[in-house]
Design brief:
5-stranded parallel beta sheet; alpha/beta; Rossmann fold
Length: 200
């Protein structure tokens, strides 16, 4: 039994290709390796809209060289609806590769789509994208937690100075107020900081 005869998840693919003639050939090749094309787009289409409508697992871009419009569209996707992106191209220019990677391309392949190697490339790109996306979310959460901690510490300092409280007393007072008002501790702290700024 071939690797594609095993239980392998069918990948939902959005194909970006400016050549209608090439699309049929690419669609057949992808179908042979467990991929389902759920939508087509050209470089001039609104790629973000297509991603939101078709909800693909991965975006495949097959073109001679990615233009500025394509890369700007990818940046919009990365910001609003991030997906794994694999680009098959003939452009081996280092600057283009750098721009494509910064725009959110997970795998940049300088060559055509080969049926035997396309699925491993797609699987690796999706895994890389998921790992990067997970790390990005963790980083955002850490930054948010640090920002909240700064607000809470600032509010404690205000209470300690204005009310003559110890650090522990200030914290307990804020926590009690948060529980009584059914609010988050950081929201109570932010209210204290905002109120104090009005009195300056």
């Amino acid at each position: 039994m071939s690797q594609f005869g095993k239980q392998q998840k069918k990948l939902r693919v959005l194909l970006v290709d400016d050549s209608p003639e090439r699309r049929a050939s690419v669609e057949q090749s992808l179908g042979e390796v467990g991929c389902e094309i759920v939508g087509f787009a050209s470089s001039s289409d609104n790629l973000l809209h297509r991603v939101q409508v078709d909800n693909p697992d991965v975006i495949i871009i097959d073109m001679e060289s990615p233009g500025r419009d394509t890369l700007e569209s990818l940046e919009s996707v990365r910001s609003a609806a991030p997906r794994a992106v694999v680009m098959f191209t003939q452009d081996d220019d280092g600057e283009t590769i750098t721009r494509a990677t910064r725009a959110g391309v997970s795998a940049y392949v300088v060559d055509g789509i080969g049926a035997k190697r396309v699925r491993p490339i797609l699987d690796a790109a999706i895994e890389r994208f998921q790992q990067f996306h997970h790390l990005s979310r963790e980083l955002e959460q850490t930054r948010a937690q640090l920002a909240e901690r700064k607000i809470i510490d600032k509010a404690k300092g205000i209470l300690m100075k204005q009310r003559g409280m110890s650090e522990e007393e200030a914290y307990k007072a804020m926590r009690s107020l948060a529980m009584g008002r059914n609010k988050r501790l950081v929201d109570v702290a932010d209210s204290i900081v905002s109120a104090a700024s009005l009195l300056i």
